[in-house]
Structure formats: C-alpha cells, structure tokens
Design a protein that fits this description.
single chain; 313 residues; seven-stranded parallel sheet; 11 strands
Length: 313
C-alpha cells in the first residue's frame, strides 16, 4: 500500500475529475471500502473489486480498522500496489466489536485513539496514514457516546496532533460532528469532514459551505441514504426517479451527480460489493446536471430534506 499522489495515466481519467485532499490530488469519486466486509468469504472477489476500482481511475479509498475487524485494511494492504498511487484514509473513534449488537464500540478516549491508529498502521502495513478521521459520536445516525466515552474535543485533538507531529498520520479529519465542533477544531488544521448527507437528508447545508470557505474536503457518507431502517433513500425520491428517466441513468447516479455538483470540494466514497454497481458509481462522475434538461436540477434542489436520526446502540 502507498500514500503517494496517483500518477496521471493517459487514457484513464479520474472519475468526477479531481480535488485536493490533505496535499494530495484525488479522484472526486472514490471508494468506501466498508462493503468489502460482505466478501469476507471470497477474498479473491474482494481483491478483484478493488483492482477494478483502480482500473476505473479511483485513487481515494476510505477504510477503518473496525471494518471487518481488520479484514478490509488487510485486503487494501495486500491488493493495492505502489504504482496505483492510492490515498488511503482511515478513521478512529471506534473499535471492532464483532460479537456485539453492532460490530463496533465507542473508543473515544485519547489512549484509545492512539491505540486505534497503531492498529490501523499495522493492518494497513504502512508507516503513515495520509488522513485519519476522528469519528466523534456527537450526532446521529449511528452510535452516540455515553459515560466515559464522552470526551472533550480538545483532549482528542491533542493526541491526534501529537500523532501527526510524530509522522504516524499525515492529516486530521473529522467525522460525525456538529458545525460548532468543526469551528472549534479549525486551529488544529482539518483536512476533511465526513458526515451523513445526501440529496434527501441535508441537515448540514451550512457545514458544506463552511468547509468550502476553509478549503476542507467535504466527504458525505451514506450518500444515497437508506443505510438503516427509517433512513430516507435517495432512490425512492420521486424527483430523483423522474430525473433518472429523463437522463436515462440510474437513480443512484442522479443522487451521486447531485452531490458532486453541490460543492467543488465534495469527494464521494460510495461503497459496494458488486462490480456492476461500482462501474455505475464511477460513471456518475461524468453525469452533468444542468437546467437544460427541463428543470431537472431545479427539481432536485427543491427536494425537501428529511431526517436521518437513526441510532444503532
């Protein structure tokens, strides 16, 4: 595995174009590796899917040690090659809990954050991770911090900054945070923010603009919604279905293309365990939404945002 910027390969445009991420230039359509857990029993198929992503021009991969209890990290380590120029981004703030009600548990304390970085370094087989996201547990959807896992942001940023100074991480990102937390963290130097956000669930409109104003990459997770029961799905939205028919593309592609257009600093990390879906996601990077198509864009912009407040534990 390597963390260098991907070389320009003639004939292989990077999907969605490119945008900066922590000093690297990456494809705006990347790959969220969490779904590779589903292929735990077929490692060859999982590796082939990663190789296909690289062939399609993807060079931004999002992972975590708690994805498959290290399986996904190890797969990235063994499958990506130095010449791929892959920028692999990981996260801390939770640890694997394969036998729990959900497969992760909070790990918010500073000593746990440091231990999680070390675990990621070992499983990824690298001396430095280009970006590590601090996954706070301030907001839904997901797991909320309780008890001794409610930790002050400054204590967390202190250990993350120390890890950066030691060269173990290249840059600090944030995940599942409020706008107030981002503002407090700005002096530490924040490379990216990952929050749940999609065309049908947009509680963070001001956060997107704040990131743009500070040159921070906006990396929405659950970009198509529907990750949990009760969470709205982009592909169920009537305006999306109408746009899909008008443009002769899939509803998922409409949802992803809308996100790319929302902000030039948006980096997508849709995940899938299926090669066909991977190819469709990458192709969404070439879909240009404009007013030329009978008000398609206006109809999408007018979609009412709905809640995504789903708690896992």
């Amino acid at each position: 595995m390597t963390s260098s910027t991907a070389p320009e390969t003639p004939g292989t445009p990077r999907p969605g174009g490119t945008a900066p991420l922590a000093g690297h230039t990456v494809s705006r359509v990347g790959y969220g590796a969490m779904q590779l857990e589903r292929l735990h029993g077929d490692r060859a198929a999982a590796a082939a899917l990663l190789r296909r992503a690289v062939e399609l021009g993807v060079d931004h991969f999002d992972t975590a040690q708690f994805y498959g209890n290290g399986f996904v990290n190890e797969l990235l380590r063994d499958t990506l090659r130095p010449e791929d120029g892959a920028v692999v981004v990981s996260k801390v703030g939770a640890d694997p809990d394969p036998h729990g009600p959900v497969p992760l548990r909070a790990a918010q304390r500073p000593e746990q954050l440091r231990a999680s970085v070390e675990d990621n370094l070992r499983s990824l087989g690298t001396e430095q991770i280009p970006v590590v996201n601090l996954r706070r547990m301030d907001t839904l959807p997901g797991v909320l911090a309780e008890g001794d896992q409610v930790v002050d942001l400054d204590d967390q940023l202190a250990v993350m900054t120390a890890l950066r100074d030691e060269g173990k991480i290249g840059a600090i990102g944030l995940s599942s945070v409020t706008q107030d937390v981002l503002r407090r963290a700005l002096p530490a130097g924040i490379a990216c923010v990952q929050n749940a956000y999609s065309l049908v669930a947009r509680p963070d409109e001001e956060m997107v603009d704040l990131c743009a104003a500070h040159g921070i990459a906006w990396v929405p997770f659950f970009p198509l919604g529907g990750a949990f029961p009760g969470m709205p799905k982009v592909t169920d939205e009537p305006a999306v279905l109408a746009a899909s028919a008008t443009l002769d593309v899939t509803p998922s592609q409409v949802g992803l293309a809308w996100l790319l257009r929302r902000s030039a600093g948006t980096l997508l990390i849709p995940g899938t365990g299926d090669a066909g879906h991977l190819e469709q996601n990458v192709a969404a990077g070439a879909l240009a939404l404009s007013e030329e198509f009978d008000g398609v864009l206006a109809s999408l912009d007018a979609v009412t945002s709905r809640g995504a407040d789903v708690r896992l534990a």
